[in-house]
Design a protein that fits this description.
The chain is of the alpha/beta class. The chain has a domain at 416-521: immunoglobulin/albumin-binding domain-like (Up-down Bundle), CATH 1.20.1430.10. It is 48% helix and 6% strand. The chain is built from 18 helices and nine strands. It has helices spanning 2-11, 23-29, 32-58, 64-87, 92-101, 123-141, 170-176, 186-190, 206-212, 257-264, 308-337, 359-372, 381-387, 419-435, 441-457, 461-468, 472-494, 500-510; strands spanning 17-20, 105-108, 147-148, 159-160, 166-167, 181-184, 234-237, 247-254, 393-394. The strands form three sheets. Strands 3-6-8-7-9 form a five-stranded mixed β-sheet. Strands 1-2 form a two-stranded parallel ribbon. Strands 4-5 form a two-stranded antiparallel sheet. Helix 15 runs antiparallel to helix 17 (472-494), helix 15 crosses helix 18 (500-510) and helix 16 (461-468) packs antiparallel against helix 17 (472-494). It is globular. The two termini are 43 Å apart. The model has no long low-confidence stretch (mean pLDDT 93).
C-alpha cells in the first residue's frame, strides 16, 4: 500500500484518501519485535520461493509457468524487503505520517482495542477505549485525530437503563473527545433492510457468517426508510443533551452501496474475476499461491495456474470501470438535485493484497483515473465535512455492519457467555480507578497494566472470530488469558498488595499503550 501511494506522490498524482489505522495495530507496527519478525518472514518467503524455483526447474517435464511464478514471487518478496528496510527504514507508521503531513491521506483512529462500544456496560469503558486510542494516535502521528472508524461500525443512541439512568449516545463520547466524523453502513442512514457487507453476500470471512447462521428475523434490522441519502454527510442528533433540532457537532458518512458491492460482492465483485489469484490454494512445499480463481465452483484441485500479465489486464479494466462508476454516480446526483454529492467507498485494508491480491494495484490505478477527472474531487473525511458542512440532522438507529445490521455477530448463542465477564471487569476497573486517587509508584504500575488487560479483554475480535469460526479456539484462549491476567492484577490491588512483578512480566508480553492512564476508567459524571 505504501509503495503504491508513494509512487503516486512521486508521479505528481493529486490524490487524497482516508486510511484507518486502529490504535492496537499502530502499537504493533511500532513494535521492534514485530519489525524483526516481518524481516524474518520476508527472508523465509524469499528462501521458499528460491527452493520452489529449484524444485520446479529440476522436474521433468518442466512446467514453465511454475518456474516463471516462483521467480516472480522471489523478486516480489525481495523488492518488498528492500522497500521496508531501506526506503521506509522499517518505519511503517512514519511513512504514513509523512503522507498525512503532506496532505495526501487522512489517518483516522478507532477505539483502543476495537472494543464493541454499544455493548459496553460502563460509560467509563467507552471513554477509556477512546481516550487511550487518541493518546496513542497523538504519540504516533503528532496531532489529534478528527475522524474515527467506529469498531465494527457499531453505533447506538442514548437510552434509559432499567434503573432509570440515562446513558449517552456514542456521538456524545465522540464529541467530547474532539472527533468530528465517523462512518456507518448504508442502512444506518437510509433505513430499510441491510445490504452490502451487512447483507452477508461478500467475500472473505464476512460471508462465512451468513453461511454458518440463519439470522432470526427478530435479529435483523429493518428500519423504516429514512429518506436520507449516502450522497452527503449528515450531522448526528445529540441524543443525550439537547432537543430534537440540535445536533452533536459530529457527522456521519455512510458507505455507498453501489460502489461498495462492486468490490465486496462475492457474486459479481471484481475480486472474483477468474484471472485473479486464488486465495485458498497454496503450494504444499512453501505455502505460496500459484493458482488463479479459474471459474465459479471450480474445485481447488482443478485450478489453473496464475498469470500476472492476465491479472494486470483485468486490473486496468476494473480500475477504469470503477472510476467511471464513481463519476456516473456523482453526475446523476447532481443532475437530479443540483447538489454536489459524496461517494464514500469504504473497504477493509485487509481486502487489498490479502483476500484480493491485486487490490492494491487496482486502488492505485483508480486514484490515477479519478485524479484526472474534472468532475471528481478526491478528498478525505474530515476535509469534506469541514469544506461542505452537513445541511441536515439525523436520528440514527442502533446498528452495525454485522450480518443483519445488528449486534448479532458479537452477541449470539456462541458468544453471549463472554459479556458477563467483560461487564464484571469493567465495574472492577472503574472501582479501582475511583479508589486510587494518589497511587504509589508500585500501585501505578499495576493499575496501568490492569487497565491494559481490561482493554485487551474487550476486543471485538474475540467474539467475531468465534462467530465466523475462523479461529475459534485461538480467540477463546486469548479472551480467557486476558481475563485471567486482569483478575489476578485486580485482586492484588483490591487486597492492597499490588503485584508489581506480575504487572511487569505481563507488560512484556504485549507491550502496548506505554502511556496508558488508568484514570480514564473513573466514573463518568
Amino acid at each position: 500500500m505504501l509503495e503504491t501511494l508513494y509512487a503516486l506522490r512521486d508521479e505528481g498524482v493529486k490524490f487524497r484518501i482516508t486510511i484507518g489505522i486502529t490504535p492496537i495495530l499502530a502499537e504493533q507496527l511500532d513494535d521492534a519485535d514485530v519489525k524483526d519478525h516481518f524481516d524474518q518472514y520476508l527472508d523465509d518467503r524469499i528462501e521458499s520461493a528460491k527452493k520452489d524455483l529449484e524444485l520446479f526447474s529440476a522436474e521433468e517435464p518442466q512446467d514453465e509457468q511454475m518456474i516463471v511464478l516462483a521467480k516472480w514471487y522471489q523478486e516480489t518478496f525481495e523488492r518488498v524487503k528492500e522497500t521496508f528496510d531501506h526506503k521506509f527504514n522499517r518505519d511503517i507508521l512514519g511513512a504514513f505520517k509523512v503522507l498525512q503531513d503532506e496532505g495526501y491521506i487522512e489517518i483516522t483512529t478507532c477505539a483502543a482495542t476495537h472494543g464493541y462500544l454499544p455493548l459496553m456496560g460502563n460509560d467509563s469503558t467507552i471513554e477509556a477505549q477512546l481516550r487511550t486510542g487518541i493518546r496513542s494516535y497523538e504519540r504516533m502521528f503528532g496531532r489529534k485525530p478528527t475522524g474515527i472508524w467506529l469498531p465494527e461500525c457499531a453505533y447506538r443512541p442514548a437510552y434509559v437503563t432499567e434503573s432509570g439512568r440515562r446513558r449517552p449516545g456514542i456521538e456524545h463520547f465522540l464529541a467530547e473527545n474532539g472527533i468530528k466524523v465517523f462512518f456507518s453502513e448504508t442502512h444506518t442512514v437510509t433505513g430499510g433492510k441491510p445490504v452490502g457487507v451487512a447483507g452477508g453476500d461478500v467475500i472473505g470471512p464476512y460471508g462465512e457468517i451468513k453461511r454458518r447462521y440463519v439470522i432470526p428475523a427478530s435479529k435483523e434490522l429493518n428500519a423504516p426508510e429514512s429518506g436520507a441519502t449516502t450522497m452527503h454527510p449528515h450531522y448526528v442528533y445529540d441524543t443525550t443533551n439537547h432537543p430534537a433540532e440540535q445536533h452533536s457537532g459530529v457527522s456521519v458518512i455512510a458507505r455507498n452501496n453501489r460502489v461498495g458491492q462492486q468490490v465486496w460482492s462475492a457474486d459479481w465483485g471484481y475480486p472474483g474475476d477468474f484471472d485473479y489469484r486464488e486465495f485458498h490454494r497454496k503450494a504444499g512445499t512453501s505455502g505460496i499461491q500459484y493458482w488463479r480463481i479459474t471459474g465459479v465452483g471450480v474445485d481447488l484441485g482443478h485450478k489453473d495456474l496464475y498469470h500476472p500479465d492476465w491479472a494486470a489486464y483485468k486490473i486496468d479494466q476494473h480500475a477504469e470501470h470503477f472510476a467511471h462508476l464513481v463519476g456516473d454516480q456523482l453526475r446523476k446526483y447532481y443532475q437530479e438535485t443540483g447538489k454536489f454529492g459524496l461517494v464514500a467507498a469504504n473497504y477493509d485494508t485487509e481486502l487489498f493484497g490479502h483476500w484480493w491480491y491485486e487490490g492494491v494495484e487496482w486502488l492505485g490505478k483508480v486514484l490515477r483515473h479519478l485524479s484526472r477527472m474534472d468532475s471528481v474531487e478526491l478528498t478525505t473525511a474530515s476535509r469534506h465535512v469541514a469544506n461542505y458542512p452537513p445541511e441536515n440532522v439525523l436520528n440514527l438507529p442502533e446498528s452495525s455492519w454485522g450480518a443483519g445490521g445488528t449486534h448479532f455477530v458479537w452477541d449470539n448463542n456462541e458468544t453471549h457467555w463472554m459479556w458477563a465477564p467483560i461487564h464484571e471487569a469493567e465495574s472492577r476497573m472503574e472501582a479501582l480507578a475511583n479508589k486510587y486517587t494518589s497511587p504509589t509508584p508500585d500501585e501505578a504500575i499495576v493499575l496501568a497494566q490492569t487497565a491494559r488487560e481490561a482493554l485487551l479483554l474487550e476486543s471485538s475480535d474475540w467474539p467475531f472470530l468465534v462467530t465466523t469460526g475462523q479461529a475459534r479456539e485461538y480467540s477463546i484462549q486469548r479472551f480467557s488469558q486476558h481475563l485471567e491476567r486482569f483478575n489476578r492484577l485486580a485482586a492484588s490491588l483490591e487486597k492492597d498488595a499490588p503485584d508489581v512483578a506480575l504487572a511487569e512480566e505481563l507488560y512484556e508480553l504485549d507491550k502496548v499503550f506505554a502511556d496508558i492512564d488508568y484514570r480514564d476508567f473513573r466514573t463518568v459524571n
